[in-house]
Specification:
The chain is an alpha+beta fold. The chain is 30% helix and 23% strand.
């Protein structure tokens, strides 16, 4: 196997390990083709936003992703962050353009815990006067 650059991305409950290496343009997520794994419209483009931020064509790179946990949205954002981190490891000069595009900032928002006496984190039971 050739030299690869790895980036770890996290979002909500999802964790993605992204490996970028020189190759023919294959993009594999959990042993599936990327278009097959990310079925929502625009998800593949969102994941590949790091390449457009630095003005690179992804056809010269093979991308391998292992993503676990969470839902579709969290996994998409986790892969996007992992991709950006891997590309910065590949070329440190891309750091500033990635930062400007907001691709290297981890979104720290997570699900708020349920509070006692409430139905969810903030939803209170219906008030009845009588």
């Amino acid at each position: 196997m050739s030299q690869y650059f790895e980036g770890i991305g996290r979002r909500k409950e999802s964790t993605a390990r992204v490996r970028v290496m020189n190759g023919s343009g294959k993009f594999v997520v959990n042993d599936k083709e990327a278009q097959e794994y990310f079925t929502r419209q625009g998800d593949v483009q969102a994941v590949l936003a790091a390449f457009s931020a630095v003005g690179q064509d992804r056809s010269g790179y093979d991308i391998s992703v292992v993503v676990k946990g969470g839902g579709v949205s969290g996994q998409t954002d986790a892969v996007q962050l992992g991709m950006a981190r891997a590309l910065v490891k590949m070329n440190l000069e891309w750091n500033s353009s990635m930062r400007k595009a907001g691709l290297l900032t981890r979104d720290a928002r997570i699900k708020e815990r349920k509070k006692p006496g409430l139905k969810r984190a903030r939803k209170a039971p219906t008030y009845t006067k009588r």
